[in-house]
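Predict the structure of Phosphate-specific transport system accessory protein PhoU.
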Amino acid sequence: MREAYHEQLDHLAGALAVMCDMVAVAMEKATRSLLEADLALAEEVIGEDQAVDDERAKCEEHALALLALQSPVATDLRVVIAALHAAESLERMGDLAQHVAKTARRRHPQPVLPEQVRGTFAEMGRVAVHLARRAEQVIRTKDIDIARQMEDEDDAMDDLHKHLFSVLMDREWPHGTAAAVDVTLLGRFYERFADHSVSVARRMVFVVTGKMPGAEV
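Done. Here is the predicted structure for Phosphate-specific transport system accessory protein PhoU.
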């Protein structure tokens, strides 16, 4: 009985790892649609977001069933609680990738990004996908050292986000208000995507240690 129960917990963790892969792919495609003004790719990301939502619903249903039927305690309980929170973060990551794709679609056939910030967004996309992949690795291995490294890796995204604001605040910004609004919102989407990746990894630290990062005394 216990063996079957732990197989269910492993299945739940595996479903979260699959969600990580889905949102990493979504953000990779969304970034390409943004940089290349690729309408077909943007539409693909937008259409595939429902699959991420469906996976979250399945994860939540599975986790709640485990709570109701198995009454887990200690580490097992932490796994279920962490899964509920992680599924929410991962769904939000899918939504953020979709927001990027919708911006590309809205401005098509015109490019969204001025040449001045294209390199910054290419790097933001790379960091975002990297962090989602790292979160997947943490879920599969429960390696809390990787989870803690992600806190530092997220600093790269924060630095890129700050750089965008320095560009936007320059009096010489020549691209007008609409472009400034697009760049501001897009920067926020990438920054939040990275934050959610780190949040997922923190939940795995909670599973292993019983404490959230930063809560250690």
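Residues 2-36 form the longest helix (35 residues).
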